[in-house]
Write a structure and sequence with these properties.
About 10% of the residues lie in helices and about 40% in strands. By secondary structure, it is mainly β. The chain has one domain (about 5-10, about 30-135): Jelly Rolls (Sandwich), CATH 2.60.120. The strands form three sheets. The chain has a five-stranded antiparallel beta sheet with strand order 1-9-6-11-4, with no helix packed on it. A five-stranded antiparallel beta sheet has the order 8-7-10-5-12. A hairpin with a 6-residue loop joins strand 2 and strand 3. The chain is globular, with a radius of gyration of 15 Å. Pfam families: FdtA. InterPro entries: QdtA_cupin_dom (IPR008894), RmlC-like_jellyroll (IPR014710), RmlC_Cupin_sf (IPR011051). It comes from Olivibacter ginsenosidimutans.
Length: about 140
């Protein structure tokens, strides 16, 4: 996979004077079946999250509150996606190195994943990631 295959997906936004509502559905906005969801919050200033790749897992990342950047790397190119609207999700295909940083105060990252947690799916060393990418070519 390459960073060019990652994309921002606009989620439905239903506006109402009482507040807005957005949602996501498998088969519509999501190109995968959701097996797990998790969220990241209370990230101290200057810290980052992630710094790994998945061999199989795909994700949709949404900034439910606040803002943060997602940096994607395919071993040859990097792209930064700034997330700051709860009706935009970033689709991250498998096989990309990623980390999240520049978290604003009270940022809340929601992540929908295509697999259940599996420690063996992670590549946590960047050099091992580059070797993995070379094998896949």
């Amino acid at each position: 996979m390459t960073v060019a295959e990652a994309k921002i997906i606009q989620l439905p936004k239903i506006e109402d004077e009482r507040g807005n509502l957005s949602f996501l559905e498998e088969g519509n906005q999501l190109p995968f079946v959701v097996k797990r969801v998790y969220w990241i919050y209370d990230v101290p200033g200057g810290e980052y999250r992630g710094a790994h790749a998945y061999q199989k897992n795909q994700e949709l990342i949404v900034a439910l509150s606040g803002s943060f950047d997602v940096v994607l790397d395919d071993g040859a190119n990097q792209q930064v996606f700034s997330l700051n609207r709860s009706y935009y999700g970033l689709y991250v295909p498998s096989g990309l190195w990623r980390y999240m940083d520049n978290f604003s105060t009270n940022a809340l990252a929601f992540i929908a994943s295509s697999t259940v947690f599996n420690q063996n799916d992670y590549i946590r060393d960047y050099d091992a990631f580059l070797a993995y990418k070379r094998r896949k070519v």
